[in-house]
């Protein structure tokens, strides 16, 4: 049996400022830094078996991982890039030691791209466009602001990666943690729990939210 830990990054500076972050690379807030360490303590991370971590390219996710492993004196994440280019060719190292936690990084797990509203204040956006359209843009399956990805677009980006890498590792019995953004994690949860398209609007994962599954005989069980 393998375990899958899905963790949303802790609160970033733009989350604190109530702005649509999307792919904009803003760091953790002071609250988020503290929150990451609290998550590690709650998980008892120094005694938790984690064979590998998967994450995206955004600093708020990578910093969440780093802050968590600040609490583990004898281990640290070693970032391994999966998107090609020189970072994958020149930067990856496969002779891992016991202290290295392989942490695979790909923009396939990045947050949904918010197009024209990326960087805007959420409350001001809601006042300008109205509550109904605002909620459709944020959470509905097909709704999307101008120039943006819909949730369905994000799902189509995330799921092939999930199946190619994460599901494959789980099938080998590896215990994995995925530290990612809200909509990439919502996509994974939708797939695992077979949530209907029309019901995905109701799925919310707060900052630092953790969802845990057992994986056995190609089936997920939420714990």
Automatic annotation (TrEMBL):
Family the entry assigns: Belongs to the phosphoglycerate mutase family. BPG-dependent PGAM subfamily.
EC identifiers of the protein: 5.4.2.11
PANTHER family associated with the record: PHOSPHOGLYCERATE MUTASE (PTHR11931)
Keyword entries, A-Z: Glycolysis, Isomerase
SUPFAM superfamilies: Phosphoglycerate mutase-like
Protein name: phosphoglycerate mutase (2,3-diphosphoglycerate-dependent)
GO biological process, one term: glycolytic process
Residues binding substrate: 8-15, 60, 111-114, 122, 138-139
InterPro entries noted in UniProt: His_Pase_superF_clade-1 (IPR013078), His_PPase_superfam (IPR029033), Phosphogly_mut1 (IPR005952)
Catalytic center residues: 9, 111
Enzyme type, top EC level: isomerase
Pfam families per record: His_Phos_1
Natural source organism: Candidatus Staskawiczbacteria bacterium RIFCSPHIGHO2_01_FULL_34_27
Record GO terms (molecular function): phosphoglycerate mutase activity
């Amino acid at each position: 049996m393998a375990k899958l830990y899905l963790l949303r990054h802790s609160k970033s500076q733009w989350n604190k400022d109530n702005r649509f972050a999307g792919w904009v690379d803003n760091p953790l807030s002071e609250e988020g830094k503290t929150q990451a360490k609290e998550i590690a303590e709650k998980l008892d991370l120094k005694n938790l078996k984690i064979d590998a971590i998967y994450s995206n390219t955004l600093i708020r996710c990578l910093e969440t991982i780093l802050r968590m492993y600040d609490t583990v004196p004898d281990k640290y994440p070693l970032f391994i890039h999966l998107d090609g280019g020189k970072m994958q060719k020149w930067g990856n190292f496969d002779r891992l030691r016991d202290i290295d936690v392989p942490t695979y990084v790909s923009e396939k797990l990045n947050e949904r791209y918010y197009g024209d509203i990326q960087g805007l204040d959420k409350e001001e956006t809601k006042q300008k466009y109205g509550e109904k359209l605002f909620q459709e843009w944020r959470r509905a399956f097909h709704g999307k602001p101008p120039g943006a990805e819909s949730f369905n677009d994000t799902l189509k980006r995330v799921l092939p990666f999930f199946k190619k890498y994460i599901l494959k590792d789980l099938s080998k019995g590896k215990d994995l943690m995925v530290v990612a953004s809200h909509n990439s994690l919502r996509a994974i949860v939708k797939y695992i729990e077979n949530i209907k398209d029309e019901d995905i609007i109701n799925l919310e994962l707060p900052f630092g939210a953790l969802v845990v599954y057992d994986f056995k005989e190609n089936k997920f069980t939420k714990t």
